[in-house]
Automatic annotation (TrEMBL):
Keyword Secreted: no
This protein's name: RNA polymerase-binding protein RbpA
Subunit architecture: Forms a complex with the RNAP catalytic core and with free principal sigma factors.
Superkingdom of source: Bacteria
Taxonomic lineage of the native organism: Bacteria, Bacillati, Actinomycetota, Actinomycetes, Streptosporangiales
Positions bound to Zn(2+): 35, 39, 57, 60
InterPro entries (alphabetical): RbpA_sf, RNApol-bd_RbpA, Rubredoxin_Fe_BS
PROSITE patterns (alphabetical): RUBREDOXIN
Keywords: Metal-binding, Transcription, Transcription regulation, Zinc
Amino acid sequence: MGSGNAIRGSRVGAGPMGEAERGEAAPRVRVSFWCANMHETRPSFASDAAIPEHWDCPRCGLPAGQDEANPPAPPRNEPYKTHLAYVKERRSDKDGAQILAEALERLRSSSRPIY
Ligand SMILES: [Zn+2]
């Protein structure tokens, strides 16, 4: 099994349309990914290929994961989503209010720049 040995019938660079005529194409598996916007995408992979943990959603560009209930967080924080995620995680408005108050207090008390 030398890597320099060309496999009979396989053509390098064959596109998706070329797969059908290659009878010996490796079997493919479809894997569902969900992004934070609940878009489902189902790319197919060669069965012997490593399935990536994340897949870019073709509709909105956010990273999508295989766990529908727990999609990966968007890389760029939009205010609304950040707040929502924050609330979901905290489950407590009091906690959030206190943390905010503490942060404000820290901002006020550190009127001098720290070097
Ligand atoms: Zn999406």
